[in-house]
Amino acid sequence: MNYHWDWAFFFQETDDGLKYIDWVISGMGWTTAVSLSALAIALLVGSVLGVMRTTPSKLLVAIGDTYVDIFRNVPLIVQLFMWFFVVPELVPESIGLWMKQDLPYFVTAVIGLGLYTAARIAEQVKSGINALARGQRFAGLALGFTEWQTYRYVRLPMAYRIVLPALTSEAMNIFKNSAVTYAVGILELYFQYKQIIEKTSQVLEITIVVTLTYFVLAFAMNRLLGFIEKRTRVPGLITGGSGGH
Questions:
Q1: Keywords in UniProt for this one (predicted)?
Q2: Residue 2 falls within a domain, yes or no?
Q3: What is the pTM of this model?
């Protein structure tokens, strides 16, 4: 193989006055920002949907199930294109123009990735709630809690402990799924990866660096949530092990 290795190219100056290593660092920053912001949305919306799907209300269950069925069965990149190109045409014209001209691409990408991941987290939260003994709900009601208070103070705190390993996997996946946002103009890590290859043709070096960067980001999230799992573990409660993959 007559490949010419050149690790020094990372420190060569580009047309914009930056170095290629600066492009990598910038991409890593955008990837982190998109992923963490989308994860916050996914946890909030996914938790609400997970609770809705375990309530006695058939209407709430139907709404939650419909959401999960739609968002889990449409590819992420198609959903992003829907948010960027289709939704602005379906809303009132003034709102559509605002979405196309003034709303930052970052916000739309975060919403798209967050709502996609929320459908997956909703499944985890629902499973965690259903895994609890029914007596916990009845005990909460007997203490005078309303149905929603039993979720807030009794059922959800325990359900999160049960599904934390699965949530760890989703948190790691969101860093990898964020690569799709390059298709709608987000200057994240994969976008910079493609740019650097086009500019330099140093495919192997940049591929190794980007691969290691994704690994470090996902592994850091794995270790953080693994630490949280250990600190919040209830003695005698089986949670399925630390740090899902």
A1: Cell membrane, Membrane, Transmembrane, Transmembrane helix, Transport
A2: no
A3: 0.88
Domain count, the chain: 1
- Model pLDDT for residues 192-232, shown as the tens digit of each residue: 999 999 999 899 999 999 999 999 999 999 999 989 888 88
181 occurs within a structural domain: yes
Query: Are residues 232 and 165 in contact, defined by beta-carbon separation less than 8 angstroms?
Result: no
Distance of CA 218 to the CA centre of its chain: 11
Distance CA 111, CA 83 (A): 9
Residue 116 lies in a domain: yes
| 212: CATH | 1.10.3720.10
d(CA 237, CA 140): 19
- What is the domain extent for residue 44? 7-232
